[in-house]
Automatic annotation (TrEMBL):
Residues 108-158 form the RNA polymerase sigma factor 70 region 4 type domain. GO terms for molecular function: DNA binding; sigma factor activity. It comes from Flavobacterium fontis. Keywords: Sigma factor, Transcription, Transcription regulation. The keyword Transferase does not apply. Belongs to the sigma-70 factor family. ECF subfamily. It holds the Pfam family Sigma70_r4_2. This is RNA polymerase sigma-70 factor, ECF subfamily. PANTHER family: RNA POLYMERASE ECF-TYPE SIGMA FACTO, RNA POLYMERASE ECF-TYPE SIGMA FACTOR. Residues 15-80 form the RNA polymerase sigma-70 region domain. It comes from the Bacteria. GO terms for biological process: DNA-templated transcription initiation.
Length: 164
C-alpha cells in the first residue's frame, strides 16, 4: 500500500474512532473484549479501505464495516456474550448533575437494549445517535422503509420489556 493511502486511512480512523468505540461498547462487556473488537474492526476497515470509493461518507461506511464485523464476530463465537452490568458500564454515561431518577431510567433502558438481537441493537444505536433513516438504511444495507418498520417494532419491543 502506498503511504498516502495509509496516511489517509489513519486520519479518517482518528477522526471517526468514536464510532468504533461506541460499537465496541455495545457489543462487549469488558475492556479486554472492547480492545480486541476495536482491533478487529480496525483491521477490517484497513483491509476494506482501498475499496472505499467515497460514494458514502466515511462515517457511514465505517459504521457499516464496524457493525458487520461486531455482529459477525459474535455470531461466529460459540460463547454467549454476557450483558454488561449497568454499574460496570456506567463509566461511559457522563452526567454533570446527578439525577437518581434519570440514572435509574438509563439503567433500565440499557438492560432492555441488551435483550435485543444484534441487528436491533445496531438499529437502536444509530437511532439514538440521531442518524436519519436514510443513513441508517444505507449503513445496515436495508431499505429506508424497512428501517422505519424495524424501528417501530423495536420501540414496541422495548416498551414491552420496560412495561411488562
Amino acid at each position: 500500500m502506498n503511504e498516502s493511502l495509509e496516511t489517509s486511512f489513519v486520519k479518517q480512523l482518528t477522526d471517526h474512532q468514536n464510532i468504533v468505540h461506541k460499537i465496541c461498547r455495545l457489543y462487549t462487556n469488558n475492556e479486554e473484549a472492547h480492545n480486541d473488537l476495536f482491533q478487529e474492526i480496525t483491521i477490517q476497515l484497513w483491509k476494506a479501505f482501498p475499496k472505499f470509493r467515497g460514494e458514502a461518507k466515511f462515517s457511514t461506511w465505517a459504521y457499516r464495516v464496524a457493525l458487520n464485523t461486531a455482529i459477525t464476530l459474535y455470531r461466529k463465537s460459540t460463547r454467549t456474550v454476557a450483558t454488561v452490568d449497568f454499574e460496570k458500564a456506567s463509566y461511559f454515561i457522563k452526567q454533570e448533575d446527578y439525577n437518581p431518577e434519570e440514572e435509574e431510567q438509563l439503567k433500565l433502558m440499557y438492560q432492555a437494549i441488551h435483550q435485543l438481537n444484534d441487528i436491533e441493537k445496531a438499529l437502536i444505536f444509530m437511532y439514538l445517535e440521531d442518524k436519519d433513516y436514510s443513513e441508517i438504511s444505507e449503513t445496515l444495507g436495508i431499505s429506508e422503509v424497512n428501517a422505519r418498520v424495524k424501528m417501530n417494532r423495536i420501540k414496541g419491543k422495548l416498551k414491552k420489556i420496560l412495561n411488562p
